[in-house]
Amino acid sequence: MFKVISILVIALSSCITRTEKGKSTPEISPIKIGNDESKTLEQDDRQVIDLKKLKFKVNPQSDTPNFKGVNTAFFGPKIEEKDYLNDSIAQRKGDTLIIQLENGKNSVFTNYTPNGEASFTNTSLHYEYRGTVDKFTQIAVLSYEYSWVILLNRINGDTTHAIGKITAVPNSPYFLAANADIESRYTTNGFQLYEKIDGILHAVAICEFYTWGPEFVHWKSSHELEITASKLGRADNNYNLIHEKLLLTRLE
Which one is predicted more confidently, 11 or 45? Predict the structure, then answer.
């Protein structure tokens, strides 16, 4: 059941307003991830993570003990200011986020709250700027229990959707999205791989985990990916979130 919820949550409807030359046209469309080439792979604490075109060997770092207090700020509502104020491509006017494209046009995302509802529910949508990787601007989409990322192509305004923050895989045409939701599992807890072909991102695979989630990722080199993984620990008969470091070695 949890698996079904975590995959289908990305199919929530969004309200995105595109503005060009001062004219606004509201569009409501389903959010979809990938295509027929995207497969969900049931993997747990296996030693090898297989994303079809990219494989990793999992190496727990025994010299880094479990720790608490990791700030899951990527989907937090308080970090946009320090991001977009330092980047000339993004502006905010009230509930509206404006992204400047390289073709001279703008892509506009307006927060959506149904009439009569509180400002932040499972049917409301908030859009927040999260920087640019390569030619793709990341926009965090926030709801009460759900979150995902819009990848906006700054060249032509096309959009793709990802489960979480993306990073460029060094020396390759690949981009890796990561998201941790090991506690509630309302969103996909795992990795999603994209391949850039002729400037367009194509979904390759989704890999979901069941005992840990990739909270933060950091490429130490072109073949080593350091993961801050969240796990459910147990103390005094209660479950609590703990974190540990994993080192993923890229396999050719």
Answer: 45
Of the candidates 95, 150, 145, 94, the residue with the CA atom closest to the CA atom of residue 123: 145
What DSSP line would sit under 188-201, residue for residue?
--EEEEEEEETTEE
Asked whether the beta carbons of 117 and 125 are under 8 A apart, the reply is no
DSSP assignment, residue 58?
E
* Residue pointed to by tokens 């850039």: 196
Q: Quote the CA–CA distance of 116 and 50 in Å, as a whole number.
A: 46
Q: Which residues contact 153 (CB under 8 A, 6 or more apart)?
A: 135, 136, 159, 160, 199, 200, 201
**pLDDT per residue as tens digits for the range 84-135:** 767 788 998 888 999 999 999 999 999 988 776 666 666 788 899 988 999 9
Tokens 């307006």 correspond to: 110
Provide the 8-state DSSP code for 5.
H
Query: To 10 degrees, the CA torsion angle through 41, 42, 46, 50?
Result: 0
Nearest to residue 226, comparing CAs of 249, 247, 243? 247
CB 167 within 8 A of CB 187: no
Q: Where are the beta strands (DSSP E) in the chain?
A: 13-20, 23-30, 40-42, 48-50, 55-60, 90-93, 96-100, 106-110, 126-133, 136-142, 147-153, 159-162, 165-168, 174-179, 190-197, 200-208, 213-221, 224-235, 238-251
Q: Using an 8 Å Cβ cutoff, are 205 and 41 in contact? A: yes
DSSP 246: E
pLDDT digits (tens, 9 = 90+) for 130-156: 889 999 999 999 887 788 999 999 999
